[in-house]
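Mods, move this if it's the wrong board.
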Amino acid sequence: MVAGYAKAGIPLEVMWTDIDYMDGFKDFTLDPVNFPSEKMKKFTDTLHQNGQKYVLILDPGMWQLEERKSSIYLKLL
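Not the wrong board. Structure tokens:
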């Protein structure tokens, strides 16, 4: 996408990614299949070298697994 913008002469200052980058929609994670960390590092480094920025949209939330039934999370409910 970024290369397509450059090829078409369309200015691009910031690339945004919605929550699809998350592993199981867990905060502060990367999906290892679609957003592997080594490729993400290379991608963001390239953007920064071009004077562009990268923004990950973070939607903080709580997630719960069955084994967490006695967790502090449930006590706070």
